[in-house]
């Protein structure tokens, strides 16, 4: 089967050269007409493309022309149609962040990896945490806190000692960033259906920003995070490098 392919590339010379070579070998259509998008770059570029095509419901097959490439397949010029035919699908639902600022503005943004609240100044943030309308933590004194998806659990979440979540677990990770009080609180694992509300205490004195992947909202007073089941994002992986296997391997790396 010959797929209708659109090639998209990051700005790096390596990614642009890869796109040029693929276009010389394979027919290409515009992204609007494609039944699969081949993304050439790194993980950051893949996240950009997932956001860009969120409303198109078109599967994305990444090939690593960046650095880590956790969300990408290995770069190979040959046999693209065969690889696409064999590829296994991973369907992700993004998080929906609703952030209210000190000025009263409400901003919505999607996150595929995580939603993070981060202190803006030298002073620690003070944040209260409610789950499904019930207060669970009156005051977390910290540098920040995040809610991570399984796909994002091996990224920023892992670097601040949050848990790695299998894709099929139906869970989210709620992870503090440099907690000071309560010092021994290491976070929580929540069902994917949870509605998480983070209220910023002393917002004028201790300003906090909210970040959903690459979308940042400054000076927030409250943030609500839910899983958006109305959007389904499809990634394609070679069977031997499936995302579930990569997440499992991360738990055994030294």
Walk me through what this model shows.
With 254 residues, the protein is α+β, with helices and mostly antiparallel strands. It folds into 2 domains: 5-92 and 232-250, Rossmann fold (3-Layer(aba) Sandwich); 95-227, Tumour Suppressor Smad4 (Sandwich). It has 5 helices and 17 strands. The chain has helices at 13-25, 43-52, 80-86, 156-159, 243-250, and strands at 5-9, 36-41, 60-64, 88-92, 95-101, 106-111, 114-119, 125-131, 134-142, 144-148, 171-177, 188-191, 196-201, 208-212, 215-217, 220-227, 233-237. The strands form 3 sheets. Strands 6-5-16-13-8-9 form a 6-stranded antiparallel beta sheet, with no helix packed on it. The protein has a 6-stranded antiparallel beta sheet with strand order 12-11-10-7-14-15, with no helix packed on it. It starts with a strand and ends with a helix.
